Automatic annotation (TrEMBL):
Pfam families found in the cross-reference section: cEGF, CUB, EGF_3, EGF_CA, Ephrin_rec_like, FXa_inhibition
A cellular component term, taken from the record's GO annotations: extracellular space
Protein name in the entry: Signal peptide, CUB and EGF-like domain-containing protein 2
GO biological process, one term: signal transduction
A molecular-function term among this protein's GO annotations: calcium ion binding
Annotated keywords: Calcium, Developmental protein, Disulfide bond, EGF-like domain, Glycoprotein, Lipid-binding, Repeat, Secreted, Signal
Length: 900
């Protein structure tokens, strides 16, 4: 018996609806059976005039037809019933579980075992062979299970896989002499209480743990029975117990050739003989006949004798490997699903389903005895048909990307809004445009979040290109300009004068010049403001590139040769150089740069429009439509006229990435911390986006810009912690501390789906979870190395103090660790589940713990069981693999029926 009951029926009642649908879904999917061969193509049978049962074969005869049940079915042909092969006292020959299926059966093995090649026996799986069983230190394989052990100076954490360093002797459970053989729990008043791993029971001395059949089949090969003295093993009737009292020996190990036949002589039904064929000769050798009854054997030639030798299923299964059936023509052997009958008509051989059409698997197919398993590439998820792989839509998850997310098959990409730069794969930080070439501004560059702007010194104003500065208008210039505007406004006024209602805007002030009483039919037009047209009966500002025409009472595209860069206007501005070629061919211009004739990079002119001049030697201009070029500085020349970047300047040395050229000293200087430069020959370094910075100076890549903020979200019910800059590499010399303090009567469950910490630097980077900051307080989890297998565990203490520390050495991706707090009434069930190695044994189970959507749903329900009802039956059925449901089912039923 594993888990003791809690005696809290309400908890059980709450859990029952949660898991019941899971339990109901553990049915076998159809579709893995082999199709039976097509029936013969004649007469009644062919024309479908027969009344043979669906599970019968129809055989045409000269006058009529014959129905006979297919193998695996019994009956007279018009009625065929499935034979339950598992019903016999030999359990279908299966040593663990036998599963009857229509027309056939299948043996399955308990967790920790795999089907042997004979399809009946089960063999221990050596979990340690794959990925060290998920053990951080040492993996020890035992019959039906495995065990992780830790090196000297470490002890196994409650999750049974990772090891905690025992740096110094602490109190109670942190003292190595705590005496518990498995799990030590702090108890009130500094004492300890021992607990055992799932499948073990606490011994009478309250310290030792006694194995039960619930863990690794009690170490038994075949059958396990719990007794007061521990598990008692026994073997399937056809097998023999090894002297170790656990393993079972297959019959062929005892009798190399067990086949013996029963024969009878025609006419003397009572005369039975046993025939033993010689080893290595099965069909061809004439069997030696031994008299087994005191009657004479008819002497005849060997051929006759052989024909007369009849096999029957009653003895040695008729020589069949698997299913045997007596028929009028002799025994008929057949094989279960996943096996094919060999030419000898008796032996069953595993079919390698993967050889044909990849077993129907979308991605990977792995053959197993009697079956096969499909699995998917990273970024894909196996669907419940257990064959198809579906792309995981990472974009449908919360927090995947800061801004926009683009899903691709097997992967995803994040993108940032304009003015932001991507860092750490998924995050967006403000771009500091001013760090590169002063943002292109001629005078002052001011960075803002999501944008930047150029500003001008006093007595200057920004050019229309918003980068250059031009001398401001003096009073006479202002008068001229105002007169011009006034004339234009009056023209507009006249045009509109006969309309019943209009506005005039002067110096930004709305003036209501005249107003006739509106006609009722145009009543709705009345409410539209200046520069607004109507769409239906709504007023809409005319967009940039258009203006409101008072005569036509609608928004009109700016005519060729004009532009308007603001919305809700009543005129368009003339293009700066209407005479330029192309200037008159740009209706709906949004801004002056669309007017045409713009100066190209490497060029300039007084207003940024043609005719343009090439930048002089010693100057460059990377942008179009500019009024000047930037000097290289330091008296440097350029290789040619019309240079477009600083790289065209003839510097004395060429700076490598991570450096910039100082034009005063003519040397390359390392980019300071917080900046990077990926290119050769630059005179600047790019500022890291947003609130990120680099660990060191001389950075060459934006990936070195890291956010140092300790991430995560701590909630009372669910939350997560993550290493800074996750999923980008975490910064050097960082220290993060979190505390989780659950509400009353709640305990913490944590899942570490994967964690990436470089092992190289001698545990310089580590994550530790313990009760308090004190290094000898109860520790739940501790690691300083990469561990890609997911691990789930409950906290040993009620609250948790979590610390992540990195040193200046290597860095890695770190972790994102979700947690949930659950009602402590479920504690035993949850601990039973998460400490069970089977949760981690299967690839598909591991995927559950890495599947963010699933974890979210699981946590959602664990935190608030009533949320279960948010999920439809279909959704919950599709969420979990069947083996996971099986695992849960055994746990939950033991939890709900502890008395059993
Ligand atoms: C031998 O035959 C007799 C009848 O002739 C029968 O009763 C007996 O069971 C047989 N013995 C064996 C070993 O088959
Ligand atoms: C003008 O519009 C073009 C295209 O719409 C845009 O690329 C450019 O940056 C704009 N220029 C200014 C000065 O707003
Ligand atoms: C404006 O220019 C476009 C492009 O050349 C031309 O198709 C259109 O007719 C012009 N419109 C006017 C009013 O000249
Ligand atoms: C270039 O070096 C000089 C002299 O060391 C220093 O004063 C100046 O600030 C440096 N320029 C830049 C852009 O760092
Ligand atoms: C940077 O940090 C400040 C506070 O430290 C915060 O207000 C701001 O939103 C952060 N900016 C970004 C882009 O994260
Ligand atoms: C930055 O580094 C990443 C990964 O090391 C690489 O893929 C990328 O091309 C680099 N970017 C630049 C601009 O060198
Ligand atoms: Ca910015």
């Amino acid at each position: 018996m594993g888990v003791a009951g809690l005696g809290c029926p309400w908890a059980a009642r709450a859990l029952l609806p949660l898991l019941l649908p899971l339990l109901l879904t553990a049915a076998v999917p159809p579709g893995r059976g082999r199709a039976a061969g097509p029936p013969e193509d004649v007469d009644e049978c062919a024309q479908g005039l027969d009344d043979c049962h669906t599970n019968a074969l129809c055989q045409n005869t000269p006058t009529s037809y014959k129905c006979s049940c297919r193998p695996g079915y019994q009956g007279e042909g018009r009625q065929c019933e499935d034979i339950d092969e598992c019903e016999n006292e030999l359990n279908g020959g299966c040593v663990h579980d036998c599963l009857n299926i229509p027309g056939n059966y299948r043996c399955t093995c308990f967790d920790g075992f795999m089907l042997a090649h004979d399809g009946h026996n089960c063999l221990d799986v050596d979990e340690c062979l794959e990925n060290n069983g998920g053990c951080q230190h040492t993996c020890v394989n035992v019959m039906g299970s495995y065990e992780c052990r830790c090196k000297e100076g470490f002890f196994l954490s409650d999750n049974q896989h990772t090891c905690i360093h025992r740096s110094e002797e602490g109190l109670s459970c942190m003292n190595k002499n705590h005496g518990c053989s498995h799990i030590c729990k702090e108890a009130p008043r500094g004492s300890v209480a021992c607990e055992c791993r799932p499948g073990f029971e606490l011994a009478k001395n309250q310290r030792d743990c006694t194995l039960t059949c619930n863990h690794g089949n009690g170490g038994c090969h075949h059958s396990c029975e719990d007794t007061a003295e521990g598990p008692e093993c026994s073997c399937h009737p056809q097998y023999k117990m090894h002297t170790d009292g656990r393993s079972c020996l297959a019959p062929f190990q005892m009798f190399p050739n067990p086949r013996f036949f029963l024969s009878w002589t025609e006419g003397s039904g009572a005369n039975l003989k046993l025939a033993f064929p010689k080893v290595s000769e099965r069909e061809d050798a004439a069997p030696e006949v031994m008299e087994s009854n005191a009657t004479s054997v008819a002497d005849g030639d060997k051929r006759v004798k052989r024909r007369l030798l009849m096999e029957t299923c009653a003895v040695n299964n008729g020589g069949c490997d698997r299913t045997c059936k007596d028929t009028s023509t002799g025994v008929h052997c057949s094989c279960p699903v996943g096996f094919s009958l060999q030419l000898d008509g008796k032996t069953c051989k595993d079919i390698d389903e993967c050889q044909t059409r990849n077993g129907g698997c979308d991605h990977f197919c792995k053959n197993t005895v009697g079956s096969f398993d499909c699995s998917c590439k990273k970024g894909f998820k196996l669907l419940t048909d257990e064959k198809s792989c579906q792309d995981v839509d990472e974009c449908s998850l919360d927090r995947t990307c800061d801004h926009s997310c683009i899903n691709h098959p097997g992967t995803f990409a994040c993108a940032c809004n304009k003015g932001y730069t991507l860092y750490g794969f998924t995050h967006c930080g403000d771009t500091n445009e001013c760090s590169v070439n002063n943002g292109g501004c001629q005078q002052v560059c001011v960075n803002t979040v999501g944008s930047y702007e150029c500003r001008c010194h006093p007595a200057h104003k920004l050019h229309w290109n918003r980068k250059d500065c031009v001398a401001s208008c003096d009073p006479s210039c202002i008068i001229k300009r105002t007169e011009k505007r006034l004339r234009k406004a009056i023209r507009t006024l006249r045009k509109a004068a006969h309309r019943e209602q209009f506005h005039l805007q002067l110096s930004g002030v709305d003036l209501e010049v005249a107003k006739k009483s509106p006609q009722t039919s145009e009543h709705w037009a009345e409410s539209c403001g200046v520069g607004q047209g109507h769409v239906g009966n709504q007023c809409v500002s005319c967009r940039a590139g258009t203006y409101y025409d008072g005569v036509q009472e609608r928004c009109i595209l700016c005519p060729n040769g004009t532009f308007q860069n603001e919305e809700g206007q009543i005129t368009c501005e003339p293009c700066p150089r209407p005479e330029n070629p192309g200037a008159l061919e740009t209706p709906e211009a949004w801004n002056a740069s669309e007017c045409g004739g713009l100066c190209q990079p490497g060029e300039y002119s007084a207003d940024g429009f043609a005719p343009c001049q090439l930048c002089a030697l010693g100057t460059f201009q990377p942008e179009a439509g500019r009024t000047s070029c930037f000097p290289c500085g330091g008296g440097l020349l350029t290789k040619h006229l019309g240079a477009t970047s600083f790289q065209d300047c003839e510097t004395r040395v060429q700076c490598s990435p991570g450096h910039f050229y100082n034009t005063t000293t003519h040397r390359c200087i390392r980019c300071p911390a917080g900046t990077y430069q990926p290119e050769f020959g630059k005179n600047n370094c790019v500022s890291c986006p947003g609130n990120t910075t680099t660990d060191f100076d001389g950075s060459t890549n934006i990936t070195q810009c890291k956010n140092r903020r300790c991430g995560g979200e701590l909630g009372d019910f669910t939350g997560y912690i993550e290493s800074p800059n996750y999923p980008g590499n975490y910064p050097a010399n960082t220290e993060c501390t979190w505390t989780i303090n659950p509400p009353p009567k709640r305990r913490i469950l944590i899942v570490v789906p994967e964690i990436f910490l470089p092992i190289e630097d001698d545990c310089g980077d580590y994550l530790v979870m313990r009760k308090t900051a004190s290094s000898n307080s109860v520790t739940t989890y501790e690691t300083c190395q990469t561990y890609e297998r997911p691990i789930a565990f409950t906290s040993r203490s009620k609250k948790l103090w979590i610390q992540f520390k990195s040193n200046e050495g290597n860095s890695a991706r770190g972790f994102q660790v979700p947690y949930v707090t659950y009602d402590e009434d479920y504690q035993e069930l949850i601990e039973d589940i998460v400490r069970d190695g089977r949760l981690y044994a299967s690839e598909n189970h591991q995927e559950i713990l890495k599947d963010k959507k699933l974890i979210k749903a699981l946590f959602d329900v664990l935190a608030h069981p009533q949320n279960y009802f948010k999920y439809t039956a279909q959704e919950s059925r599709e969420m979990f693999p069947r083996s996971f449901i099986r695992l849960l089912r055994s746990k939950v039923s033991r939890f709900l029926r502890p008395y059993k």
